[in-house]
Amino acid sequence: MRLNGEISDIDEEDEEREADVNSIGVAFPLPQKLVVGYALTSKKKKSFLQPKLLCLARNKGILFVDIDRNRPLSDQGPFDVVLHKLAGKEWCQVVEDYRLKHPEVIVLDPPHAIQHVYNRESMLEDVADLNLPECYGKVDVPRQLVVAEDPLSIPVDVTKAGLKLPLVAKPLFVDGSAKSHELFIAYDEYSLSKLEPPFVVQEFINHGGVLFKVYVIGETIKVVRRFSLPDVSKPELSKIAGVFRFPRVSCAAASAEDANLDPAVAELPPTPLLERLAKELRRRLGLRLFNIDMIRENGTRDLYYVIDINYFPGFGKMPEYEHIFTDFLLSLMHSKYKKRPGI
Ligand SMILES: Nc1ncnc2c1ncn2[C@@H]1O[C@H](COP(=O)(O)OP(=O)(O)OP(=O)(O)O)[C@@H](O)[C@H]1O
Ligand SMILES: O=P(O)(O)O[C@H]1[C@H](O)[C@@H](O)[C@H](OP(=O)(O)O)[C@@H](OP(=O)(O)O)[C@H]1O
Ligand SMILES: [Mg+2]
Ligand SMILES: [Mg+2]
Fold first, then answer.
1. N or C: which end of the chain has fewer CB atoms below 10 A?
2. Contact at 8 Å (CB) between 210 and 230?
3. For position 18, what pLDDT does the model report?
4. Is the CB of 50 under 6 A from ligand 2?
């Protein structure tokens, strides 16, 4: 099946099969309700556009079409939905201009909203402002400060801000590169002066070595457990000095779903808490596709910290993402048509 010269996810063999069936008149053409243009890195295409997703989508009448970055976006399609995650200011501008010119197309998600979570300072601001009712637990963010340029002033700034050791340093900007996911643990504030700004310095929260990844796709949420960095004990802290580098720590982290964990560590955050958090963040961030990394302070039952928010994360690792994502796309269409006057 071709669409304005674009090749869809249906491969040639499938095309032939479809044509054969249609030519002898024993079946109707597959229903086509929704065209989704995608602009993704090859890594993302591989992890997200898996055969199972494409097959399910096709059965539901959803067609994924690869956007050609070398041609104007408006000349391609027409699309019902544009799904994108590519780095660079130029690309952001292309998508922003397209959104203004084509308000009828649902763009996932608006570039300005994505930029907001590509900065580790603004990323957590909305969580800090939330003030959710505390009936199911308290959600906070670790205390942090931004080191913009002068690393020599860090020890004084850390003391002034009252940050407790150990500390985590993370690059301020997230741009999809391996370097922007490099993390440092500092056992003393002086060692941080060796790092290259800009970065954020955050308090390390002991959390029993398990992290909760809360995936959000529209109104659906799904939480999984992942192994995380181990706790730092007081004796360890007093014995060790220096700063230690962890390249791409979260990506390397394995699933902890089937692990034999201490029940107090393994217990998932309460669903009503996660639902409220996701709903509020969806609204405040203006994003529909993201995940929230949450930890529970070790030794507490209900003190949670959000440490990271990722735009259009690795949904390929989310259980049942194929069904959830395709249903989400269809729901977008339903709400779009419901909004039309007279329909
Ligand atoms: N403040 C903290 N306290 C304790 N552990 C932390 C803290 N911040 C980060 N970590 C640990 O380091 C990991 C990586 O940190 P973070 O999630 O911020 O980085 P990232 O590169 O943005 O990850 P992702 O691949 O999810 O985008 C976390 O998954 C967690 O295991
Ligand atoms: O799903 P989690 O564990 O959160 O990890 C994701 C990161 O948060 C994303 O930043 C990665 O996507 P990009 O490589 O497109 O930034 C994303 O890459 P992927 O989609 O290729 O798996 C993941 O590494
Ligand atoms: Mg993370
Ligand atoms: Mg992240």
1. C
2. no
3. 38
4. no
- Block means of pLDDT (10 residues each) for the chain, length 343 residues? 37 38 40 88 97 97 96 95 95 96 96 97 95 92 94 91 96 93 96 95 97 98 97 94 89 86 95 97 98 97 97 96 98 77 50
Distance 172 CA to ligand 1 centre (A): 13
Instruction: Give me ligand 2 centre to Cα 30, in Å.
Output: 33
CATH number of the domain to which 224 belongs: 3.30.470.20
CB atoms within 10 A of CB 150: 10
Asked if the peptide bond before residue 198 counts as cis, ω within 30 degrees of 0, the response is yes
Predicted confidence at residue 309, as pLDDT, reads 98
The C-alpha angle 311, 313, 314, rounded to 5 degrees, equals: 170
Structural domain for 87, as ranges: 34-109+328-332
Residues in the ligand 1 pocket, defined by CB under 6 Å: 142, 168, 170, 181, 183, 202, 204-205, 207, 211, 228-229, 249-251, 293, 295, 307-308, 310
Residue 183 in contact with residue 246, Cβ under 8 Å? yes
Residue 293 in marked binding region:
yes
- Classify strands 81-85 and 106-108 as parallel, antiparallel or unpaired: parallel
What's the confidence (pLDDT) of residue 247? 87
Q: What is the pLDDT of residue 341?
A: 55
Ligand 4 centroid – CA 230 distance (Å) = 18
Determine, yes or no, domain membership for 121. Answer: yes
pLDDT at 338: 67
Number of structural domains found in the chain: 2
Nearest to 254 by CA among 310, 301, 210, 205: 210
User: What is the per-residue pLDDT for 6?
Assistant: 36
Q: Are 57 and 191 in a shared domain?
A: no
Q: Is residue 8 part of a domain?
A: no
